[in-house]
Amino acid sequence: MSFLSLMVKNPFRNRTRAALAIVGIAIGIATIVALGMVTGGLQSATTSTLKAGAAEIAVTQTGANAFESGGGTLNDTLATDLQNITGVKDTAGILRANANITGASTFGGGLSVNGMDSSKLSLEGIDSINGTIYSNGSANQLILGTTAAQSLNKTVGSTINLFGTDFTVTGIYQTGNFITDSGAFMSLNTLQNLTSNSGKVSVIAVKVTDNANVTDVSQAIQNAYPNQLTATTAADQANRINQGLGFINTASTAISLLAIIIGGIGIINVMIMSVFERTREIGVLKAVGWKSRRILTMILGESIILTLTAAVVGIIMGVVGVEVLLAVTGAGFKPELTLNILLRALGIAFLVGIIGGLYPAYRASRLAPTEALRYE
């Protein structure tokens, strides 16, 4: 038997103990992988707010949130007024409302319904639709995002009841933005009438001219309507979301440290027991000429093999767990498994193997052959 194959087989002599050690470390690794995948997926999804062709600025009443579905707070005539500001190319008023609907498993709970002129949909990043666009006016038609359509099991031609009225789904759209794809769009006038928000909108999407500076235009809007309007750029929105995701990264780092500490203690225990049970074996190896350095390398290698095995199991657990969770909840984004996440998981496992195996390996290498052979 070669030296390498000996190191590979030794950790699994006691299968129960090895399995428990692997599971303990794998749980920590799986958590790290899962958080990394979710964070990466959300960060990628937020970059879609910078999609070419979509509005670069969201204008709301001061103190309001562009993503809230609390009804209209602005006069829809402001959308026309804002076009007089230098650098503004196009505008569109959007009314947001939340509809409670059975089976909805979308962003924010319920179904986010947006009222908007159908000719302005490109300002929300809706460029292509499977089906047709809804008609403006009082027609009971709407389009659904792919995530909303999947969670509600709706297709083109399906009927959906919102605010006590039956609507026909004329199209399914996909923007790549998990928030937008979790909602629905219909005629602005129709939603205003259904929610008693006549002449009101929640937010005004602003598209700037090609040669305009987005930040300058945003500031010009706020200067024109001081203490009344707040203009937020798409880049600012993405940064704010990513800052929130930074808390997840911090939690992942804390879990990494915890995994190293707990995993290290577990491996120390497993490897000390292994050395204790193999005292006579180690004595024989030293008696036939094995150097202390070779004994140390063997025990340390066994520890690393055990933790790397746990890393592989943990990665599989993390990936499967995230996919199952998102499939059940109907979350509107795709998790990302990157090389950085894999290297991080393997690196943590390797570090745990070094930390956990160092003392047992040193202890084994210091055993005196004669005393080890006499050990019962």
What is the structure about, briefly put?
This protein is α+β, with helices and mostly antiparallel strands and about 375 residues long.
Note the main attributes of this structure:
2 domains, single chain, 10-stranded mixed β-sheet, alpha+beta, 16% strand, 376 residues
Report on this structure.
The chain is 51% helix and 16% strand. It is α+β, with helices and mostly antiparallel strands and 376 residues long. The chain folds into two domains: 3-47 and 240-374, no CATH class; 63-226, no CATH class. The strands form two sheets. Strands 1, 3, 4, 5, 6, 7, 8, 9, 11 and 12 form a ten-stranded mixed sheet that branches. A hairpin with a 2-residue loop joins strand 7 (159-162) and strand 8 (165-173).
Could you tell me how far the N terminus lies from the C terminus, measured between alpha carbons in angstroms?
A: 25 Å
Gross morphology is elongated
Overall structural domain count: 2
Fraction of helical residues: 40-55%
Low-confidence parts lasting 5 or more residues at pLDDT below 50? none
Task: Please state the average pLDDT score.
Answer: 83
Strand elements, count? 12
Helical/strand content category? alpha+beta
Strand count, sense and closure of the main sheet? 10 strands, mixed
Strand content: 15-25%
Q: How many H/I helical runs?
A: 11
Radius of gyration: 30 Å
User: Could you state the order of secondary-structure elements as H and E?
Assistant: HHEEHEEEEHEEEHEEHEHHHHH
